[in-house]
Each structure stands twice: as C-alpha cells, then as structure tokens.
Amino acid sequence: MNRLTLFIPLLVCLALGAFLYSSLDSDPQELPSALIGKPFPEFSLPDLNDAERQRNPSDFRGDDGKGRVVLVNVWATWCYACRIEHHFLNILAEQGVAIVGLNYKDDRAMAQDWLTNRGNPYLFSIFDAEGTLGIDLGVYGAPETYLLDAEGVIRHRRVGVVDQRVWDEEFHALYQQLTDDADAR
C-alpha cells in the first residue's frame, strides 16, 4: 500500500475543518429568502378572531386604500421565543408601526387567549392552521418577521426574535425610508 494513501483521511479532515472554520463568520439568523424583492404571496385565509372573514394581501393596505409599510410577524403560542418577542411588538405598535400577525400552526382559542392576556400588537392576525402560507413564505419556524413596502413587496426578513437591538440594526432605517417613500407618493 502506498504511504501517500494513508494521508488521505488527514487531508479530508483538514479540508472539512477549513470549510467549517470559514463559516464561523456567518450569522445563523441570516437565512436567505428567495422572496426578497418580490410581492407577498397571494393567500386567502381566515382571520384569527373572525373565522368567517377571509384575509388576503389587499388587507395590508390602509383604510384609505393606499399602500402602507407593514411588518408581518409569524407567531404561535407554542413558540417560546415568541413570548420573548411579544412585549417589544407591543411597544412598536404603540409607536405606530403597522404589524400584521400570522398565527402559524396553532390552536385558535389558545391564540386568542394569548393576545387577550399579553396584549395585541396586530392590526389583525391571519389564522394559518395548516401552515399553507408559511410554506409559501418558506417559514423555518416562529418567530419570523417580514418587512413589506407600501406596494406589498418583501424588503427584509428576520428569522428569530425582533427586539430593540435587532430593530435598530436591521429594521428601523429601512422601515423609515420605506415609510418616507410611501408618504411622498
């Protein structure tokens, strides 16, 4: 047996180690989305609080029919991280940020109780019991948050908790720019 073949496992391990080491700089929360720059997917799903009312992307527009910048927040009562995030979403809503909830693979009554007990930051919540809209969005789990411009185009996506730091670093400047652009129209 050739002595050089004895070094093949060592070379493979070194190459694998180098690859893994080079990926240490990547942020595990930064998962790419093929939907950035594309319209929010079409859907027709019931409202969490009114099962007879069907929601769709046109509901993201304001009462005046004009487009508005909106956050779409994927949440569920079974999601521990959503408990952490929820208080900050209430703060954003108090500051006038338009937030739509996407209640993902959850129990309707439990979700309604959650909002009653913890406060409701959402303009409305879409009830996605089967996860069909979640599949169209490429949802990995909850929480996830999407920033939509006034035309309903997805401009940013965050997998994981949105807190003050994340808002300041990832959302605030883009949200303000999109809001200013929408107001100028």
**Order of helices and strands, N to C?**
HEEEHEHEHEEH
- Assign a percent range to the helix content: 25-40%
What is the CA–CA distance across the termini? 75 Å
Number of helices: 5
* CATH-derived architecture: 3-Layer(aba) Sandwich
Structural class: alpha/beta
What is the average of the pLDDT values?
Answer: 88
Total count of domains: 1
Strand % is: 15-25%
Low-confidence stretches: 23-29
Supply Rg. Answer: 21 Å
The count of DSSP E runs of length 2 or more, i.e. the number of strands, is 7
- The top-level CATH class is Alpha Beta
The CATH homologous superfamily name equals: Glutaredoxin
Widest beta sheet: strand line-up? 5-4-3-6-7
**What is the CATH topology?**
Glutaredoxin
Architecture overview:
The protein contains five helices and seven strands; from the N terminus they run αβββαβαβαββα. With 185 residues, it is α/β, with parallel strands linked by helices. The protein has a single domain (27-184), classed as Glutaredoxin (3-Layer(aba) Sandwich). The protein has a five-stranded mixed beta sheet. Mean pLDDT is 88; it is low at 23-29.
Brief characterization of the structure:
By secondary structure, the chain is an alpha/beta fold. The chain has 5 helices and 7 strands. It starts with 7 loop residues before the first helix and ends with a helix.
